Amino acid sequence: MPTARPSPPGDPVEDLYREHGRALLGYALRRCAGREEALDLVSDVFVVVCRRPDQVPQDEDGRRPWLFGVARLTLANLQRSRVRSGRLGQRLAADLGGEADGVPDPAALLAARADARRVRQALAGLSDADRELLTLVAWEGLTPAGAATALGLAPGTARVRLHRARTRLRTALTRLDTDSDTAPEETP
């Protein structure tokens, strides 16, 4: 594990942290759901300090209120994010028909079918890129253009790669069928 690089003497961020970090942590502990969230909030405040050093007030009396203002805004963002996440979870649960277990596992759905093992074997023989593109379209329900966006490809490139990946999957499935037809039967 890498060790932390010591701050140079007189580092303004380090000085701010030493002077106001404990007070900010107390503020965060009184407002956050738990200790880890409070520590994250204080860290986020100092990320802002590092990213915007020109906005930190130069006068000693202005720094502490400014830091608390950043903490307040950061906490408000965290709370809005929590609300949005909760709403999204509710919408997903409603869209999925209220399944108790959450999102169904596409692999589990395939496992219910007799050819699941065969498809998994064929997919395992493909490259990671082919497997990812095929599963984004087949399991996750993305369009080829949507898969292109997810993979950072041009839509035309994704369509060509998808066509080639489907061809390789068919070949792999055919090879598995041929191998199983020619394999000797087990004797009891």
From TrEMBL:
<dbReference type="Pfam" id="PF08281">
    <property type="entry name" value="Sigma70_r4_2"/>
</dbReference>
<dbReference type="InterPro" id="IPR039425">
    <property type="entry name" value="RNA_pol_sigma-70-like"/>
</dbReference>
<dbReference type="InterPro" id="IPR013325">
    <property type="entry name" value="RNA_pol_sigma_r2"/>
</dbReference>
<dbReference type="InterPro" id="IPR013249">
    <property type="entry name" value="RNA_pol_sigma70_r4_t2"/>
</dbReference>
<dbReference type="InterPro" id="IPR007627">
    <property type="entry name" value="RNA_pol_sigma70_r2"/>
</dbReference>
<keyword id="KW-0804">Transcription</keyword>
<dbReference type="GO" id="GO:0006352">
    <property type="term" value="P:DNA-templated transcription initiation"/>
</dbReference>
<comment type="similarity">
    <text>Belongs to the sigma-70 factor family. ECF subfamily.</text>
</comment>
<keyword id="KW-0805">Transcription regulation</keyword>
<dbReference type="InterPro" id="IPR036388">
    <property type="entry name" value="WH-like_DNA-bd_sf"/>
</dbReference>
<dbReference type="Pfam" id="PF04542">
    <property type="entry name" value="Sigma70_r2"/>
</dbReference>
<dbReference type="GO" id="GO:0003677">
    <property type="term" value="F:DNA binding"/>
</dbReference>
<dbReference type="GO" id="GO:0016987">
    <property type="term" value="F:sigma factor activity"/>
</dbReference>
<feature type="domain" description="RNA polymerase sigma factor 70 region 4 type 2">
    <location>
        <begin position="117"/>
        <end position="169"/>
    </location>
</feature>
<feature type="domain" description="RNA polymerase sigma-70 region 2">
    <location>
        <begin position="16"/>
        <end position="83"/>
    </location>
</feature>
<dbReference type="InterPro" id="IPR014284">
    <property type="entry name" value="RNA_pol_sigma-70_dom"/>
</dbReference>
<protein>
    <submittedName>
        <fullName>RNA polymerase sigma-70 factor, ECF subfamily</fullName>
    </submittedName>
</protein>
<keyword id="KW-0731">Sigma factor</keyword>
<dbReference type="InterPro" id="IPR013324">
    <property type="entry name" value="RNA_pol_sigma_r3/r4-like"/>
</dbReference>
